[in-house]
Amino acid sequence: MSISERLLTSAKHNQLAHSCLFYGDCRQALFLAQQLAATLEKNKKVLIDCKLIEAVNDTIGINQIREINSFLWQKPISSLRRTLIIKSAGSLTAQAQNALLKITEEPPPHGLIILIVNKLEELLPTLLSRFQKHHFAVIGQPATSSEAQKFIKASQIEKKNIIKKLLDEEGDLPEFVKLVMAELDRDPVKNYQPLKALLTYWMNINQYNTNKKLQLEAWIESFLY
To answer: Domain count of the chain?
Structure first.
């Protein structure tokens, strides 16, 4: 069972640890963090119990951490947890890390904190000790235009196999979809129908903060031309 499957199963049963640390491939990590938040909110279109913190001028300061403490202690409105995702957590100042440490020592009962970093060394050892760690290895190389061209020319069975492989290996499927659309757009008249289907689907999944991987899995069946 992959990291994604294991954590998503835990989320469905509300068995996630209060504090999780995702390190390695930050794109995979952020994608899964958002999936977990969506799962906890039963895949609602708009997530209201999830908060994403990003660096301001390459820094996440103590004031931002003080604000999130209030967010985490509030009772969830539509979710099993109030989920806090800190992207590029290595940008936390030493003061901010110590403030976050105090929160994790007495975690809010309905809170979930997810930190995302490239390397463990970016955080203080005392803070690291409070988090359940999950490593995301970089898988393969980014998709290329030639792979998108191959996909377009492939049979329906081959298309299914290509997408299934990307999903199984937790590859960057959204990026691959964008490449396919770019290739189709080279001849928009000839590719009008498949391009229209893809563009419509792409706008729908980006309009709402939803579980995009599940929607992209559905795309395998809905868009095979």
So the answer is: 2
